[in-house]
What we know:
Blueprint: H1 2-18, H2 20-23, E1 33-39, H3 51-65, E2 73-79, H4 85-98, E3 103-105, H5 110-122, E4 127-128, E5 145-146, H6 152-165, E6 172-177, H7 180-195, E7 202-206, H8 214-222, E8 227-231, H9 234-246, E9 252-255, H10 262-269, E10 277-280, H11 290-303, H12 312-319, H13 322-331, H14 337-345, E11 375-381, E12 387-389, E13 394-395
Parallel strand pairs: 1-2, 1-3, 3-4, 4-5, 6-7, 6-8, 8-9, 9-10
Antiparallel strand pairs: 10-11, 11-12, 11-13
Amino acid sequence: MKKRLMLVLFVSLAFLLSFAPNLCAEEGVTDTEIHLGQWGPQTGPAAAWGNVARGTGDYFKWINDNGGIHGRKIVYHMFDDGYNPAKTKAGVKELQEGTGMFAWACGVGTSPGLAVKDYLAKKNIPWVGPAAGSLHWVNPPQKNLFAVYPLYHGEAKALIKYAIEKMGKKRIAIAYLNDEYGKNGLRGALAELKAHGMKAVAQVSMENKDTDFKPHVMKLRQSKADLVLLWTGVGHSARIVGTAKAMKFEPQFMSTSTTSDFPLMMSITKGLWEGVITATLGELPDSDHPLLNKYKKEVFDKYAAKEERWGVFYYAGIIFTEPMIEGLKAAGRDLTRENFITAMEGIKGFKGIGPEVNYKPYNKNDMYSRQGASQTFLVQCLAGGKYKKLTDWMSIK
Length: 397
């Protein structure tokens, strides 16, 4: 009787232990899957940035078809928030509390990201590579959030520095979107102007809903600016340049990396984007960079939808998640959020197709413990949407 009881207890214990990995597994992780979420505007005012999320999805398909992460496949959950922070918040909460995400990847936009930043931080849910260069992600830094996008503040400083020191511009105006995306660029530009003992000759703000840009361009023209820095969305930037041309106002235009997809910008401006100088965040689409060409052949050519176009926005979805894949691999088979965060902190000198990425152990007083990239380079749009490289990669701290 005693032996029989011991046998029953042994079998029962073995049965329970066989389920232990699943019982103790981290949220969003099973023995065969890792659930990752992302939002990305497929409709609305920022739909031109929607291929960031699609690029990430194709990259994850490629990862899965090449063995996944320690035998686990990535299950990718992406939803269209229309660049509407209220929809971002609702969608993230629904996926997190319904399906259960292990972590979040990318996510386009400063305002949409700010809508969920505190929610993810409170739950210590990892978020890697927000697709926006906002200081809000790292100032102050938070343990769960790892930024990859170079800071807009730094991009703006690099552009203004080049305009003054290399182009000799004297009268610089700034046109910006009246949200945290636009204000990040504004603050960086004003800081660099101040460092050169200068002030902006005009600061012209606009709203997402604006469609008539004659009043904005009139203010810029009245300022007699010889250079206008645009920190606006794709559509707004295109309309401002078009309206300026119609009003016979033709300064040098500069803009952020969010408008650095030159074939797209040339198409929607009917060629008026030619000559515009922008910052950028990744290797050029037509470069001979080996890894970029590998992604073009093995990711884009194989997985992209027929109507998809190869360009900087598409593979930005890869740039922002390359470090995430490195962290998942380094975390090993015992995948928990804490292990993953520790693995991300160990990334040093990582160079994919974007800027070099470096992290450190979390330090509430050091934004660069979570701001992974601090490099950009400047390019100018040529006829046919071609790129002219004006600088090499440079530090923008």
